[in-house]
């Protein structure tokens, strides 16, 4: 049901993804959705939570094995790329909920909770790599995590909203910006950006 809702949100938006359409897409009865989630609002929030959990899992998988600053920057690039390649419903959900959060306290609280969890996990991962001597954080882990998150989100939104984004030059500069936060020389990191595999692509 969550997967069906995600697909429909990508096609029609949150409001357009009605219970009737969800029952058809998921091939379940309307009563089943009501029994499982109770309301459309609850279903959407459960989808938000499921997608957030998937992003956190991917973040842990990306950062846990890195053994150098260069690898961590590569992991940052790869994670933004992975997020870009998520199905459209993931992005529509976040954008529409972000707008709703400006006027709906319950939505704002739900998004804030997810952001706090993300920031906490990201900061803990960075702090662990700092303790291992893999990186040298230029500021508190939570601050660096917040800056990297903001940069990654901005790059992703630019790519999603621009029909023909020129991301290679942006990524060269992004790598150079990220490097000092992790204790690496920005000129070295900028040079690393030309390596095979450090590429953005879009599947949609």
Describe this structure in words.
Mean pLDDT is 87; it is low at 193-204. The chain has one domain (48-192): Tetracycline Repressor, domain 2 (Orthogonal Bundle), CATH 1.10.357.10. It is elongated, with a radius of gyration of 19 Å. Helices cover 76% and strands 0% of the residues. It contains ten helices and no strands. It has 204 residues and is mainly alpha-helical.
Features:
204 residues; Tetracycline Repressor, domain 2
Helical percent range?
A: over 70%
Strand fraction: under 5%
Low-pLDDT stretches are 193-204
Large-scale geometry: elongated
Briefly, what CATH class?
Mainly Alpha
**SS-based structural class?**
mainly alpha
CATH topology, by name, is: Tetracycline Repressor, domain 2
Q: Overall pLDDT, averaged?
A: 87
Number of strands: 0
CATH superfamily: Tetracycline Repressor, domain 2
Q: How many alpha or pi helices? A: 10
Main sheet: strands, sense, barrel: none
Order of helices and strands: HHHHHHHHHH
Distance between termini?
A: 22 Å
How many domains? The number is 1
**What is the CATH architecture term?**
Orthogonal Bundle
Report the C-alpha radius of gyration, rounded.
19 Å
